[in-house]
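re: ur question from yesterday

yeah so i grabbed the chain u mentioned. its 335 aa long if i counted rite. heres the sequnce exactly as i have it in my notes:
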Amino acid sequence: MKNQVKIVGIILIMLLFILSLTLFFNKSEKEEETIYVSFPEDEWPHNETVEWYYWTGHLETNEGRWFGYELVFFIYKINGQQRQTVHSAVTDIQKNTFNYTIQSSINPIPRSGEPLQFEVSVFSASLNNGNDKLYSKVDNYTIDLDLKSLKPPVLQHEVGYKSYEFGGYTYYYSRTRINTTGTITFKNGSYQVNGTSWFDHQWGDLIPATLLGWDWYAIQLDDGREIMLFDIHSGQEKLLTGGTLVDEDGTAVEIMPEEFTATVLDELISSKTGVTYPSGWKISVKGIDLILQPVIKDQEVATSSYAGYWEGACTVEGDLTGRAYVELTGYLSLK
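ran it thru and got these structure tokens back, copy pasting raw so excuse formatting
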């Protein structure tokens, strides 16, 4: 009887020991877990050196006419004061034209608790948990859009944060499939449009990255998935590559550097800046082979006072079909 009591006592002690270890490690894991991006708090601007709210998308009229658009609000510091600059562009595939504009402002930046709305000249954007309203006028084109996100926000770099080995850091999330409706007006006519947009919100110490350059791919596949890929580079040297694959249900899986390649198929020599950009890509990612081709070769944003970058609408063919936007920066240094 005494032996049985001893055995029961030993078992109880062992169970309590195992339970205490489990609680300890669970507590440690929770204490070590860092939440980098929170919603809705982090939808508002931050006190960082650079931040951007970035929309690109594909619009189609009832007659099947296709347009690409870009609308970006940049927030940055000059002498400790935050300022805003807006970039907006419209790609008219049928006319084979690319129109863009850049405007700056010292309008107040919205703060937490205030309506999340940006206004610079004739450009505006209001955000509400994936439900956005955009308005833009670029030369003869006016877009007035309502956006409704179809998937939850995606934390890029798996947790929404990345510290760069070359200096600086970024917080970053995306809304990768946004139903888009509204109107596009040109030539005294207004046309109903439907389409799909992509939204990026990024902030942090991004100056080191902007002084380098990157290739960025936002691919929306017809099977309901999205792929984001990036390649930060210094000249021809690759410094950081990766991406994210988003399933139909919104589940996001990080793409590791060894899981994709991008092979350049052609080039564009800009008539405005003389910069040579890659143009057309064969993308291999997680066993999927895709061909991305610009709908118009010259989709460069550049002015006499701004060095420029290439940002353009693209077709997607290969193993799967879809549409994409590609951004290319840092190529002026290769001129």
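noticed a couple things. Residues 267 and 278 are 4 Å apart (CA to CA). also The domain at 47-334 is CATH 2.40.370.10 (AttH-like fold).
anyway ttyl
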